[in-house]
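Hey, can you fold this?
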Amino acid sequence: MVNGEQIQPAPIRLLLVDDEEGYVSVLSKRMTKRGMLVTFALSGGEAIRTLRKQDFDVVILDLKMEDMDGIEVLKIIKKMIPELPVVMLTGHGSEKAAREGLTHGAYDYLTKPCELEDLLKKIREACGR
């Protein structure tokens, strides 16, 4: 509290990286309604260009994308901003690849489709909130 007023924490700045446009659109709307500042990238290359221009608190990164593999994107993110937490999203049957992401510095992974509350909880954990 400052001067008797409760200070609201700054909204979480989230970069959502997935090449499924419909999924990204729905998920970003749902997260924005929960007070997050969501930016999305529909490819790995777009994500890296976005990270060069903006600061984020956490990245949600799909493992399977057309242009670049999620692990490849993760490695680049970790070279650029080592402390930035990255949560991998993976389809069923790709848990082995997601675990590989953990060895390259991912914070954690969730299997798609995941419950929104599980994803929100993981985002807050990754941001230390």
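Oh, and this one too while you're at it.
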Amino acid sequence: MMAAPQPRPQDSAIEELLEAAYALEAAAAADSWDEALELETLCRRLLEALLVEPPDLAQAESIETVAIIYRRVMGLAEECRTAVADELGRLRQGRRASNAYDAERGA
């Protein structure tokens, strides 16, 4: 009877990285950008630790999964940035209208 392979320390590091990456995506989707920033920092630290040695095939696949998640998070960040820019534009337009009204009323 063959013994089951023992998990390697890198396996738990990969699991931790994937968990952090999925949590990062969930935080970004929930518009919780402070939490997303903390999780991104954690992901980067975990990834740097993993890449001390060249990754094996399983690690490379997991790293590719993290890259896919990062692309989705970047898309969410871009959507948020666009929404904020649009809102700022509306606020500026409102301020200009208010200033014009005040100037006309005061004249």
